[in-house]
Amino acid sequence: MAAWGQPSVWGSQMCVRWQQKKGKGFPIEASRSTSIITSSSTTSVASSTMLSSGVSSKGFLMGPFQEGKLSQPSWTGDEPLSRLVSALISIKPLFALMSLGARQVLIGSAEKNGVPWRKLSEECLASDVYAEKDLLEDKSVIYPDYYVKNFHCYPDGNLSWKAASEVEAATSSMIIRAIPKAKNLEEAIKVLRGNWLRAIEDYHLVHSGNPEIRDILDVGCSVGISTRCLADTFPSAQVTGLDLSPYFVAVAQHKDKKEAAAGKRREKPIHWVHALGENTGLRAQSFDIVSLAYVIHECPQDATKGLLKEAFRLLRPGGTVALTDNSPKSKIIQNLPPPLFTLMKASEPWMDEYYSMDLEGLMYEVGFTNVKSQLTDPRHRTATGSLSNLQFRGEPSLLIIMYRGTSLLIVDMKWSNASEGLAPQ
Ligand SMILES: C[S@@+](CC[C@H](N)C(=O)[O-])C[C@H]1O[C@@H](n2cnc3c(N)ncnc32)[C@H](O)[C@@H]1O
Fold first, then answer.
1. Where are the annotated coiled coils located (predicted)?
2. Is 6-391 in CATH node 3.40.47.10?
3. Quick check: helix, strand or coil at residue 253?
4. I need a labelling partner for 249 at 20 to 30 A (CA). Which of 56, 102, 148, 169 fits?
5. Residue nearest to atom 1 of ligand 1 (CA)
6. For the chain, what are the domain ranges?
7. pLDDT tens for residues 292-316?
8. What are the phi and psi torsion angles at 16 (to 5°)?
9. Do 355 and 345 touch, CB atoms closer than 8 A?
């Protein structure tokens, strides 16, 4: 088994992983100093030797990752600059022109950095991936209005083979941009995915009360890149990847089958599910970790709340929800140059709502406890929350006993482990 920082090459997106003590999920490195903060200052992830590139000898980026001066970028929300950009984007011919330009820039910069965007897409489209969609698609799924929009310059958003065939390259391109100090794509992946995975495991160890991780759900798994990272990192867990795009999960499953045919079999094969993240149809209390990686910037606030409620229902007591995505407080994101933030807004319909949302507050509102948020790379935060082992269920009953003029109040609270019927607010 590979140690922390060593690449595990399941799939073309390499992922870091560290050894787990049998069934316990402890990392093999004894001395780690992760500082977890609640989003008000800079954050460091760990300490070890820094290389000149700013990447640690253990393969993950050293903090502190810097926060800007604002609570959210001025190009988002209701700010004048934000409204001006939104007005420009709403002019259809201008939007079409921007989308075209944006695509050329994305493809060009990816290929310049060694990501063979067009080749990967062509290979996918020429394969027999199409049959997987028939096997996985749940035809009863109703797509919410917020989902059937132009995302990432694709008129059909996430619901097309073209989008599905380009996801892997687009993800690599995003990672290269996010970790500019990395020497190459592999190093950038180690940093971005490694810090995220470490934040999850560290948090779970501290807050779960039982560090054993048996089942993991990756909501918004796309073509399975984050899902494979989770499966590589927690090899003893049964991992499920779920996405609302049947095209994307088809690509994920197709890749697994290709790898299995080439002799790369997992001890516990990943399950792929086509479903709505807010209403998965999966059994209550059947997961130890529910992860949403880069999902909620694609959702309006109501949908994010729905996703959190469903995660709450699916987690076992002591379970961990983890959301990683763009950080409104990231200095780099706050200082993006106008062409870049215009491009971002033009390709992400829910950007303004996302950046204005109080994610940590929403997590508490839904019922999670010990909510923590930290920058895990220069652009992204990972927010974690726990489903308390002890949950209050039902109405308290009051019993007041009068004894020689002194009243004794007995409150009979029905405390129990979170039960299947416990619905978050
Ligand atoms: C940027 S991709 C996620 C990437 C992936 N998790 C990773 O880290 O590489 C966002 C994904 O979320 C999915 N998604 C968005 N809203 C969803 C919802 N309500 N339920 C399930 N999946 C959703 C999209 O289809 C898309 O595949």
1. none
2. no
3. helix
4. 102
5. 294
6. 6-391
7. 999 999 999 999 999 999 999 999 9
8. -85, 155
9. no
